[in-house]
């Protein structure tokens, strides 16, 4: 282990994290028990939830019931995620039972996901009555000043101290021949790491920062973030953003753990500058690809779900004007609304250039671009919803007319003397003709198709709408790039698209994710898993990993836009050129590209990436046993 990993002398107000005398643990030969701790266990917040949940089947194959997850207990969010159970044979159940007797609000059960792993959920408010004493202890023992901080910080602190009692107790309930590997994700779970390091417990601790706190705060506000990293002073920036305690917790955990990791090379410079420790391992994220496998059906699924998107597009645009759906491409960007971090800004600029270029070209292509992100809104726009309802009415009326024709056409042809198709209009009752005419009259409009599908709470200051208005990219009839801004996540119960997010992805032609700050990036990887080409950037962990690991990745339908060392204008130009190139592809070329993407998806399966975790766990155990 690098001697600098746990320094003998730390900076202002960060006191030395000591290892208790005689804390060198006995070497355990049996396979360790694995306990994974994350704030997103049974608690869907962001990408780490997907990391943990998708990895479970691969982990279960190695550990079976020697694996347990620990997370916070929030009764109002667990819903169908958690089932409380009684399993006396489980050391984790017995640990929970013992802690309950001591007055802790803690639950044991199963996470209702693939693999149904054991889960322990801790109420983060269970020690709030001792918060003052806990804060004093953190200052006295570790130099962490928690005097200022909000509710989330206080929850993390009390959660961490209950977690310490959990680990102390579980060590008494496991087979003495076994040790524990504990994997902690992010600062929210890391309070107990320096505490546990001071005790002679057989726990090899791995700490993963998916993105440093300071990186998350600074990057959105500084275009030159990556250039400035070596000169950023963590103390002043932490105080500037009022996150000093959180950063101190993150620093203490990174120093006290036996193995420090992050998810991509992109975040390594942050770790070295802000946490004073280089990661021991890079743990790239994966997916449970088995959930996405459609074998030879995936091309058919693309067609099926594309037809569902067609239905929405007809209802949204065709009341105003029409275009050729056979020559229409569906692009999308999705994720948390971080306008700059997620590359919404770059995408809009590139689309503006693409629209101008397509107008001047002879390409018969129309692009419909979907922006999918959760934003505060009042309701679905009534005009948008009404148009979709009338579209469905037109479809039902047409089906009824087809039924009328179907019943009468056969007999008219076989009974008639003329060997030609009779006038089909004669087979339709006046009732259906009138009904169709009236519905079409109500449906058609002279207004432009609405850009945003919902009534936003702050329409005036929304960054996407502000750009579209200034660029006049507002779905004019001559625009070759059409915009649908859908400020809510897509689900089957959504009255506009009526499909799950995965189905929507499969129905599109391209996912665009040119992030500026993205420690990993699941959205482009989900495109690959669904057999859909995607664009990412070299500033995202996923894009960096693709560049390092996959030769000729563009031939496999994964484009990586160069943003590192490039100006914003250069990145916009490259993205716009990439989009135009995709617009020039023939249908046969697009089919071949989807085949290439689908074949590449297995590269990102957890079963192929889990070895990175196994190596990190082995390293942590060796450090524990060496007494370093």
Explain what the structure shows.
The strands form three sheets. A nine-stranded mixed sheet has the order 3-4-5-2-1-6-7-8-9, sandwiched between helices. Strands 14-11-10-15-16-17 form a six-stranded parallel sheet, sandwiched between helices. The chain has helices at 47-63, 75-78, 91-101, 131-142, 151-173, 192-197, 213-218, 225-228, 234-240, 244-256, 268-274, 298-317, 344-360, 382-415, 430-443, 463-471, 501-507, 522-529, 541-549, 568-583, 587-600, 606-626, and strands at residues 33-37, 67-72, 82-84, 106-111, 118-122, 180-185, 203-209, 259-262, 281-282, 328-334, 366-372, 377-380, 454-456, 481-486, 510-512, 534-537, 558-561. It folds into three domains: 27-288 and 608-626, Glycogen Phosphorylase B (Rossmann fold), CATH 3.40.50.2000; 291-380 and 450-604, 3-Layer(aba) Sandwich (Rossmann fold), CATH 3.40.50; 382-446. The protein is elongated. Strand 16 (534-537), helix 19 (541-549) and strand 17 (558-561) form a beta-alpha-beta unit. 44% of the residues lie in helices and 13% in strands. By secondary structure, the chain is α/β, with parallel strands linked by helices. It is built from 22 helices and 17 strands. Residues 1-29 have low confidence and may be disordered.
Shape: elongated
The portion of residues forming beta strands comes to 5-15%
Write down the CATH class of the largest domain: Alpha Beta
Q: What is the strand arrangement across the widest sheet?
A: 3-4-5-2-1-6-7-8-9
Q: Which secondary-structure class do the elements indicate?
A: alpha/beta
Label the CATH architecture of the largest domain: 3-Layer(aba) Sandwich
